[in-house]
C-alpha cells in the first residue's frame, strides 16, 4: 500500500479455472465506488482450486479482513451481491 491510498485489496482467484475476469470485475467495482482509495493485487492460484477470495487491508493491518469467499459459500461476486461486498469494504474504512 502506498501513502496515497487508504488500503490494499488482494483478490486470490483460480488461475486454472479462468477466473481472471471475475477478479477484474471485483477490482472494477471497487475502483468505481472508491476511486483511488485502494491498490490491488490479483493473484492467480496455480492449477484448479476453485477459489475466489477478496481480502482487504486498511491502515497498518497486516492480517487483512476476508470480505468475500467463494469457498465459504458466497459464490462469485456478481451484480446481485457486489453491493454487499462493497458495503463490507466501506465498513472497514469507518
Write a structural description.
28% of the residues lie in helices and 30% in strands. The protein is an alpha+beta fold. It has one domain (7-93): Glutaredoxin (3-Layer(aba) Sandwich). It has a four-stranded mixed β-sheet, with helices on one face. Strand 3 (52-58) and strand 4 (65-69) form a beta hairpin. The protein is globular. The two termini are 18 Å apart. This is Selenoprotein W. It holds the Pfam family Rdx. It comes from Euplotes crassus. InterPro entries: Selenoprotein_Rdx-typ (IPR011893), Thioredoxin-like_sf (IPR036249).
Q: Which runs of at least 5 residues are low in confidence (pLDDT < 50)?
A: none
Report helical residue fraction: 25-40%
CATH topology name: Glutaredoxin
The number of helical elements comes to 2
Quaternary state, please? single chain
Quickly give the structural class. Answer: alpha+beta
Radius of gyration: 13 Å
* Mean residue pLDDT: 94
- CATH homologous superfamily annotation: Glutaredoxin
Helix and strand run: EHEEEH
| Basic shape | globular
Proportion in β-strands: 25-35%
Level-2 CATH architecture? 3-Layer(aba) Sandwich
Tell me the number of structural domains: 1
* Ends apart, CA distance between termini: 18 Å
Pfam families: Rdx (PF10262)
Protein name: Selenoprotein W
Keywords: Redox-active center
